[in-house]
Design a protein that fits this description.
By secondary structure, the chain is mainly beta. The protein has two helices and 20 strands. The N terminus is likely disordered.
Length: 401
């Protein structure tokens, strides 16, 4: 059976719908904007025509990156609680050598009194206590996110586009302390999400929407100032392309993002109430399209992102509430971008890609610990670089038992 394909062409001259030398929009094509046309076509397109690729896979990857960033902000708050920089008593800790933390409760239980409570006590501190495993202690959290991003055309056959995304995530997790040492902990959780992204293209009436649920697992391990986290997530999205006219009708294709993200950090004191936390990490997303995608010129693709930077923070207590503003700066790049269009349906496509482009990110946050297990945070994000400007905001609420 012949395939039905919806293909977008470059339109250098709206009046004649000129594509390139020797290649024009076929007579059956219909204009959908000043700079584009489409055609229903049975079979393959002439090799001399360059097909317009709308960067669908890249947009899908951006949606999963937003989810990863949201989960990371939850993990940062939990790590700060465990390491004592959020909601801690800020007294000296023999466990990690910097701020006191939840771990100090273990030392109190073992009978090690605070040395500073007796000014005449000068004997050497006791040997590190043997690990005493406790847990699990459970927690639940919810998060709302909004993101806005503009990307310039990545190639001569790409559209500049603006994406607005709204998402909600919620999760439950458990914390175990003292697994292998008195100053370590493991957090393991389950997250669910809903994402709704809308894309508009400069110079075209076409609009794209991606929406659907997601589910994933996350974990973080803390030992003293060191921490490492890993998130695995699947997003099951629906991709709808609306051409802005009665014909053709909107195209609907299934899309699955399968991704994994990981980071390592090491927190160091900058005085009694401040810290710096260098960080490095990666994220990998495999975007897989469902039935009918090949006919629309879409193929499975993979993206690998690497990032590095640092987070700075300080904390104090106001009326019993622990207040911790932080600022994270990152440099990142998509070092591998593979796939995105089919060779069979599009004979001479040019896939827009941001592979190798180095970009920056600034993430301010305000974390609050109200005591009795209640905490919240307000965080933002600004992304910038060649052909890219974007930002997001998120609100997190968490209850720890």
């Amino acid at each position: 059976m012949a395939a039905l394909a919806v293909i977008f062409f470059v339109d250098g001259s709206p009046a004649q719908a000129q594509l390139s030398a020797g290649c024009t929009c076929p007579a059956a094509a219909t204009s959908v904007g000043a700079n584009s046309c489409f055609q229903f076509h049975v079979g393959t397109f002439p090799a001399t025509c360059s097909a317009r690729n709308l960067g669908i896979a890249g947009i899908a990857v951006s949606q999963q990156q937003l989810s990863f960033s949201g989960i990371q902000s939850i993990l940062e708050g939990r790590r700060d609680q465990l390491q004592g920089t959020l909601g801690g008593s800020k007294t000296a800790s023999t466990a990690s050598g910097y701020a006191a933390s939840d771990f100090d409760e273990t030392f109190g239980a073992l009978g090690y009194a605070n040395q500073r409570s007796n000014p005449l006590a000068f004997k050497a501190p006791p040997a590190p206590a043997a690990p005493v495993s406790t847990g699990p202690s459970w927690a639940a959290w919810a998060q709302g996110l909004g993101d806005w991003e503009h990307r310039d055309a990545a190639s001569a056959t790409d559209f500049a586009h603006f994406t607005s995304t709204y998402a909600a995530q919620a999760g439950v997790d458990a914390t175990w302390k003292g697994l292998t040492a008195a100053d370590d902990a493991l957090v393991v959780g389950l997250v669910g999400s809903w994402t709704d992204a809308h894309v508009s293209y400069d110079g075209a009436a076409t609009k794209t929407r991606m929406y659907g649920p997601g589910i994933g697992l996350y974990e973080t391990y803390v030992k003293g100032g060191f921490s490492a986290d890993l998130t695995t997530k699947f997003d099951f999205l629906r991709l709808m392309i609306d051409f802005g006219s009665a014909t053709p009708p909107p195209t609907l294709v299934g899309l699955t993002n399968a991704g994994v993200s990981g980071n390592i950090q090491y927190k160091q004191n900058l005085g009694r109430d401040s810290f710096v936390e260098p960080t490095g990490g990666f994220s990998f997303t495999r975007t897989m399209f469902g039935y009918g995608a090949e006919a629309s010129g879409l193929a499975d693709s993979s993206t690998l992102r690497l990032q590095a930077g640092a987070r700075w923070g300080s904390s104090w207590t106001i009326n019993g509430v622990s207040v911790e503003p932080t600022l994270k700066t990152l440099v990142y790049s998509n070092v591998i971008v593979d796939g995105g269009t089919t060779a069979t349906a599009i004979a001479a496509s040019i896939t827009p890609s941001d592979q190798g482009k180095v970009r920056g990110e600034i993430d301010p946050a305000l974390n609050l610990d109200f005591g009795k297990g209640y905490s919240a945070s307000l965080s933002g994000q600004v992304r910038f670089g060649e052909g890219l400007l974007g930002g997001s905001v998120s609100v997190n609420l968490r209850k720890q038992w």
